[in-house]
Amino acid sequence: MSRNRPNYFAGFGSLVWLLVVGLPLYVMLVATFQSRPDYAANGPLAFPEHFTLDNYINDLNSGFAQYFLNTVIVTMCVVGIVVLLVPPLAYTIVRSRGRATTTVFRLFLLGLAIPSQAVVVPMFFVISEAGLYDNLIGVILPTAAFAMPVCALILTGVMRDITPDLYEAMTIDGASSRRVFFQLVLPLSRSGVSTIIVFSALQAWNGFLFPLVLTQSAETKVITMGLYDFQTEHGVDTPGLLAAVVLSMLPILIVYLFARRALVQGLMGVGGK
Amino acid sequence: MTPPATAATRSEKVRRAGPSGIGAGRPGFLWAAPAAVFFGLFAIVPLVMVAVLSFASWDGLSDPEFAGLDNWRKLLDDPVMIKSLWLSVLLTLLGVVVQTPLSILLGVWAAGHQRNRAVLSAIYFVPMLLSIAAVSVLWRAVLDPNFGVPAQAKWLFGDGNLFGMQSSAIGVLVFVSTWQFTPLHTLIYQGAARAVPQVLYQAAQIDGAGTVRQFFHITLPQLRNSIITSMILMVVGGLTTFDTVLILTQGGPGSDTTISAYYMYQKAFKSFDYGAASAIALLLVLVSTLISLIVVRLSGYDKMRSTMEGL
After folding, report:
1. Does the CB of A6 have a partner CB in chain B at under 8 Å?
2. What predicted TM-score, i.e. pTM, was given to this entire model?
3. For chain A, how big is the Rg over CA atoms in Å?
4. Does A189 touch chain B (CB under 8 A)?
């Protein structure tokens, strides 16, 4: 935007928003480093007098380590399924001219609108019938399925940018669709693939409803369930609870630091063009 | 790495690709089959089951029995259901009204290329990364009447129990979803604002139009497609809000924040009335699909064309 004078109104507004975003994050961080009595005495806005890591240590000892591990397993499997299935799908959507493909693409677009709560009742029975209730696989499968529409949308957007000349050149050389996919499409859409990795990982890591309905025991709890239980059981231990929140977001923040580009660009494409 | 194609060269390519492109070597449907089958199994099949179950009476233990329109009739007579629909709509509308102007302003502002804007946008983005569960737990703690911020700032919050009254409980829900989802919409607008051709602004400056006029006469109209996409996301997201309500208000006080999605969860997993729950679920799907169909039509997503082409 080319503007001659600085826009003070916008600058002020953006600082206000910084406060709105930053203040709760500050309250959260500060609370986690003080003991429960300190927090109760000083209130949420005060700076901690006696710095302690006990809240984190207690959380990790009371099951959060296990929840962490479960979440890592779920996330890795979901990302695996998405990366295996979505690139060939996007490739077909972009290159095939068949009617079946168009139908499938529309189906996936509609899938964007299917809220996961809507199918949670039948999902509960399908998963129970399959003997996967209270099993991480039972969480992984539906989570992966519901991550697919957005990923398909992002990746088709990226693959559509590959020049037709390249396809033509390869086809004239007599390349099969398999060779075209592995030697042309995949290498050229590497950025898109990393976007969908970050995306599906984020969705799996933060998933709530499917674990809530499809798991029960401590061995299969994921970290969002851990937070929810903590809140209902020890709601008064605010520093411990907030330390659990920080623990739950730590890996995401690290991923964000490294994959910010892919994440942001993937999202910008969704409504930007 | 794909070089970022500019809008102009892109539409050119699309045109050249047309039907004249060589048809051989195109992938067959088999390439899409695994994804289609997987998605069908875990999204489409349950969806069909929801539709069937909405006409059945079922407690989850005995066999489901066909019940005709019973569930639907009961729902129409259920005051909590009617109230929950109204609350869903209210919450969604408030969300759209608050988030749209806010995210447009933030997005357009962040589209500038100054360094401080890039840094701030990176910070703004953080709430988006947190799970709804984490965000709700965080705000529950921050707004706790006894140990949270309201206890310290009585001049602002009165008696401090924001969850004890319908109006303030709804206010909290709207505020928390705004806090979490504004980054997403800001980003959509930021991307769109960057794509607005600079020529338009240069022309406007020559005509002597100021910042405000440029915003209303160039930026806003150019953001039309993004506004549609973003609003649809807000509406579908708003109608299906669930985690926030479960953690922050549990539908209370009374049933004052029991929105439809939460009521469906209660019906299914607390009162074990799976038929009624399915009917509510189907209602939610119908509404959100309808809205999405409208946006797919309006934005031309399904025709696979760039909306920049008309420029």
Report:
1. no
2. 0.85
3. 23
4. yes
Specify the residue for token string 């129409």.
B76
Query: How many inter-chain contacts (A to B, CB under 8 Å) are there?
Result: 339
- The position carrying tokens 């697919």 is A148
CB atoms within 10 A of CB A181: 18
Whether A117 and B139 lie within 8 Å, measured CB to CB: no
CATH superfamily membership of A55-269? MetI-like (1.10.3720.10)
Chain A contact set for B226 (CB, 8 A):
271-272
Each residue of A82-134: pLDDT tens digit? Answer: 999 999 999 998 888 778 888 888 888 778 778 888 889 899 988 998 899 99
Residue environment code for B176-200, b if the CB has 16+ CB neighbours within 10 A, otherwise e: bbbbbbbbbbbbbbbbbbbbbeeeb
A contacts of B240 (beta carbons < 8 Å)? 115, 117-118
Cα–Cα distances (Å) from A54 to A34, A61, B136, in that order, read 8, 10, 23
Q: What's the complex ipTM?
A: 0.86
Structural domain boundaries in chain A: 8-53, 55-269
The Cα–Cα gap between A188 and B69 comes to 53
